[in-house]
Structures are given as C-alpha cells and as structure tokens.
Amino acid sequence: MVDKSDVLTLGESYKIGVYVKFVGNSYSNEQRFSLQLQYNDGAGDVYQNIKTATVYKGAWTLLEGQLTVPSHAQDVKIYVETEFKNSPSQQDLMDFYIDDFTATPANLPEIEKDIPSLKDVFAGYFKVGGAATAAELAPKPAKELFLKHYNSLTFGNELKPDSVLDYDATIAYMEANGGDQVNPQVTLRSARPLLEFAKEHKIPVRGHTLVWHSQTPDWFFRENYSQDESAPWASKEVMLKRLENYIKNVMEALATEYPTVEFYAWDVVNEAVDPNTSTGMRNPGSNNKNPGSSLWMQTVGRDFIVKSFEYARKYAPAGCKLFYNDYNEYEDKKCDFIIEILTELKAKGLVDGMGMQSHWVMEYPSLSMFEKSIRRYAALGLEIQLTELDINNPDNSQWALERQANRYQQLVTKLIDLKKEGMNITALVFWGVTDATSWLGGYPLLFDGQYKAKPAFYAIVENVPPLPTPTPVQVKYGDVNGDGNVNSSDLTLVRRYILKAIPDFPTPNGKIAADVNGDGNVNSTDFSAIKKYILKVIDVFPVENK
C-alpha cells in the first residue's frame, strides 16, 4: 500500500497500472488479484476497485484501470491485494511481487451532445433520473452526461444509514447528556459532494433510503450503542425513540445545510419483505452476521414499518412523497405481502407511492407480470416509480446488445401505455451512470464505459409517442357546481369552502370557476363578486376582463 495524497490531484481522472507476479510450488497456477483505491470521505474509509484480473504463476501480469480521485477525498492510498474473500485460503494470504506502478492523467472521452436528451424525450410522462455514488459522478463526462439526460438524482450509498450515522458524535452526545442513548447523531459528510452537485444544478433528489436491514451498523441496535458483539440488543421502546430521532436528525440536517435542495421523494422503508418466511417479513437477526436478516424485526418487530412512515411524515419536508421500495416486486407472492403493508399504510395516510426497483434480467420478469403488479399497486391510489432500473447483460456482442435494446423498448413502451391509461407513474430512474460503474458489472445500462449511447438508448428514445394535445378546459366562472348556471347554490358552495366546511368543490374545475378575480385563491373577494353577479350588480367577473 502506498500513500499518494501528495501526488494524485483531487477531482482528476487517472489511468492506473501495476504489474503483479507470484511464484511458489505450493500454489496453484492462477490467482485473482485486485488493484484498489482507498480514501477517507470524512465519515470513514471508502474502498473502490480499480481492476481485478487473473494472474498466472510465474508471469508478470498488468492490472490496469481508470479512477477519479473524489474532490472531497482525504488520505488517498493505492494498494494491491489478492481478491478479497471472507474466508481466505493459505494461497489467498501469499506473498507476491509488484513492479512498474504508473498513474497517468486519463484522456477522458467526450459525451455525445447531439443525441436526444432522455429528460426531454419523456417530458410530460415522468421524471427520468439516474442513481450515482460520489465516485461515479466525479469524472467530468459523468457530470455532463447526467446533466444532459436526467432531472432526478438518487444517491447510490451516501444517504443510507451507515453513511449518515455518526458513531463518534453519537457516543459523545450520549456521554455529554447523562447517558441519553436515544438520540443518534448524523453527518452529511459522505453525501456532501452529491448534495453540492444537486444544489448547484437545481436537480431534485430522490432520498434513498431511511430504514433498511442492510447497510445499517449493528451498534445502532445495541444498548448504549455498544460495539461489543456480546452486548444485548436495545429494547423496542429505546429503538422506536432512536428511530424517530434518527429520521428527525437526517431531515433537519438536510433542511439546515441544504435548504435549497428539493427532496421530492424518500424511500422510507427498503426491502422489508421476505416471501420465503411464514410471516412474509425478514427473519430477526443481524444482516451483518446472517445476510438477509433484520435487526428491525429483532428489536421492534413488524411495527417498525408503520412507525418509520409516521416519523417520516412528521419530519419530511412539505410536498415530499413517501415511498415503500422493494425488489422482485412483480412476483405474485411477494406482491401479496407488499400490498398488505401498503394497504395498512395507505389507510393511515402514511404512504404516497410504491418504488419498484426493477432490476431485470433478459428473460425475467415477463411483461405480463410487470403489468399485473403495477395495476395492483396503482389500484391502491399510489404513485408508481421505477427506482433502480437496469437489465443485466453479461454479453456485449452486437446480438446481445440488440436483444437488450428490444427488452428495454418493450418495458418502456408498456410503461407509457400504462401511464396513458391512467396509472400514476411519476419517475423512471436508472441505477448507475454507465456500464463501467454499474454494481452489476457487465453491460446493463443505456450508456457504455465510454459514455456512448448503446442500442438500448435509441430503442427507447425513438419509440416514445408524443403526448396527445390536451383539450382546452372550458370554464364558466361562478358555476362551481357545473350545472350551467350561476346562482345561490354556487354561492353557498363558495361560502362553505371558505369556511372549510368542505375540502373541495364537487366538480374537477370547481376551484378554477370559483376564483372569479383570478388571483389564484378562493376567498371572500370571490364570494362578494359572485354575489354581485347573481344580483346583477356586475355583468362580468374581474378575471374575464384580464
């Protein structure tokens, strides 16, 4: 490992290379090695793979890849290791040789500026977003690609619990406040590069995610936030208080430090359902010890879902929509359990939408499964957002890319048909910027590693029908009940609306018809004008003279 803090320029992109060789009669003929970047983002150490490849015994092998050192990085290091394994063998712990390390400023490709913009193509249908980590969005062409095509940003990791929970500050707060162990402290250090990007370019943000069994440290669930694995779990009462204060602190930190960044939606609870259990919920336990288990189920039980939404509704900014988010959400059995959760939340007025992650493969799910699940969620009166779309494709042959393009086209065509039919689909978010940085590896997205549009891009942008021109709304001012006349019945409705005796007018255009002075409000001035019109004191309303 070598510290390169004083050599590598922050924000600069580099081509990194090093030669690796191993020898030894006791070792097999091949071994996987990784070239890695490590840096501190202010909250903790971040690890980024530059290149992993197979090295053959006795032969020098070049490990080479590209990286951008994030502008907020500290303590930047480059290192080589045998490919990480949870249970390494003796061979994985071998000594090895390295030589000829190089770091050369990268000649980054230009994005295609003369192709259609996704956000423009789908304007009027729904937001088109991208998900990105700070590292993914660090290179200049990544920023340019994002700004050209997307009008919504989802943070890949930087707003997940393990990124925002601040252990040192939490312990300090507890010790300074008489042992108060119910007010976990938070930090936005990891999220700051993306928040600054959203702020500078006025990009609405989709918050991801508040409450999740994964990427949440075990200490958050233990008495006194202990890091001792033998320490007991906190009680339900304590965890509910921690949950509320955690959500409150996140929302307040964002509102205080970034008041101009719009959070239009939040994934409040993520992936709570496991259809393979009798309850449909994840098994109690530590996900960090037994992947897939939930410490929310361990400490609180199923109530954590409703409580999470209660607290989010209480502290989220005005107008921010609250979502439940999950994967394999199109499978019937899992959909049944999700519908059960959403129905309860909807009845309590706590949820606004369903986040369908939409991590697809080439053969699955079928379009009929996809359509059926959307109809079921929409029937609850919820918004629908595809929140993490990608289509896994390990093959970049022309045949495979065309096949993927057809798959994307079918999905988006179905989505538009359902939108035009009346499904309340409000966002389409792609999980990643380019194939080169996708969590899946392979070639799952619309843009390749050189920031160039793939056949899948053209397949969807060239097949989006224009929205039908809406029929102009004909409004007869003063006629708030829509019976064709302006009389005492309309006056009574306006009076009751002003006094809040009724929440709305009985016709879709009733509020427009009642606003007879055209100031955007319905108040006593409109009431007085309608009364004068009925008494023939005036012949036309003020708005008709504007």
TrEMBL record:
One Gene Ontology term of the molecular function aspect: endo-1,4-beta-xylanase activity
Catalytic activity: Endohydrolysis of (1->4)-beta-D-xylosidic linkages in xylans
One of the Pfam families matching this protein, by short name: CBM_4_9
Swiss-Prot/TrEMBL keywords: Carbohydrate metabolism, Cellulose degradation, Glycosidase, Hydrolase, Polysaccharide degradation, Repeat, Signal, Xylan degradation
EC annotation from Swiss-Prot or TrEMBL: 3.2.1.8
SUPFAM superfamilies: (Trans)glycosidases, Galactose-binding domain-like, Type I dockerin domain
Single biological process term from Gene Ontology: xylan catabolic process
InterPro entries: CenC_carb-bd, Dockerin_1_rpt, Dockerin_dom, Dockerin_dom_sf, EF_Hand_1_Ca_BS, Galactose-bd-like_sf, GH, GH10
Protein name stated in the entry: Beta-xylanase
